[in-house]
Amino acid sequence: MQKALRTITYNYHSPLNPAQLTVAQGEEFLAETELCTGGWLARAEDCWTPDKTCALNPTVVVAIDGAKPGDMLAVDVLRIEPDALGYTGFDTKLNPLAERIYPTDWGVYAKTVRLDGEFALWSDAVKLPLSPMIGTLGTAPAGEALSNARAGAHGGNMDVQEIAEGCTVYLPVEVDGALLHIGDVHALQGDGEINCSGGIECRSVVKLRARAVRRPEAYGCVRVENADCLMTVASDKSLETSFYLGVSQLLSWMEGEYGIPKKEGYLLLGQVMQARNTQFVNPTWSYVCKVPKKFLRRAQISDTISS
Q1: N or C end of the chain, less CB within 10 A?
Q2: Minimal CA–CA distance to 186: which of 163, 168, 209, 208?
Q3: The domain 3-214: what is its CATH number?
C-alpha cells in the first residue's frame, strides 16, 4: 500500500505543491501526518512553548489520478491511528478567549499526555477516551495559495470532530489530480477548540481512499456524511455567516439528493437539525450542521406545505 511520508510537508494549500504520490481512484493509501506545530515532540518530558512551533499545520499531499477540475472528490476516512504522545496548550497573548478570561495573567500553559490507543492519560486519576479526527483536509485551489490555518469551500483547517473514521468528506476539485492536503490530526477535541493547540494534537497514520464524483451545481461548502447523518461544514470569518451558509447548503443537499423541497426541508430542520461551532480560534471559524438520515426517506416527506 502506498504511503505519503511526513518528511515532505507544506504549510499552504497550493496548486504548486507537488504530490508525494499519485493513487488510483478507489485505491486505499496511507498518510503520515505531522504534529500541527512540527516534529518537536519526542518524549513525554517534552512540553510545548511557542518558540518550538516550526510549522503551521503541515500537510502531506496526494494526487488522485483522473480527478479533473469541476469534479467533487469523495474522500473515505478508513482509519486514524494516533501516535503514543500528544499535547495541548495555549498562550494567553495569542488565544482570543484566554486573553479575555486572564486579562492580566499572561503566560503559556501546556500539557503533554501519553496516548495508549484507547485513552489519553490526562492524570493518574483521569483517562479521556480517544476520538481521533483529521483537523486539516482539503484540496488545492486553482489560484492563490491558501494558508493551512484557514478553512473554506476547499476544506482546509476545519477542525471538525465528525471528520473521523467511517465518514466521507466531499471536496471540490479545482486542479488536475485534486492535490489532497492531509494533516493536523487530533486525538481528542472539545467544541470551540478553546486551547488553540487542540484538542490533543498528535502525529498519526491515516488510511484513506478517494474517488471523483459529480459536483452538484449548488456546492458551496464542504459536505460530510457517515452512516447516520448528512453534514455540511461552513467556515468564514463570521460565525453567523458560517452558520447561515451551513444551513442553506444542507437544504440544497437534501433537495438534490432526496428531492425534498427547500421550504419543506426548512421546516424539518427546525425540528431535527443539530449544529454547533467546532472551533473559533482559527482565522476562519467553522460550523457543522447535521441532519439524521433516518428522517430523509422520501416516502416520509410531504411535498405540500401551507404558504
Answers
A1: C
A2: 163
A3: 2.60.120.580
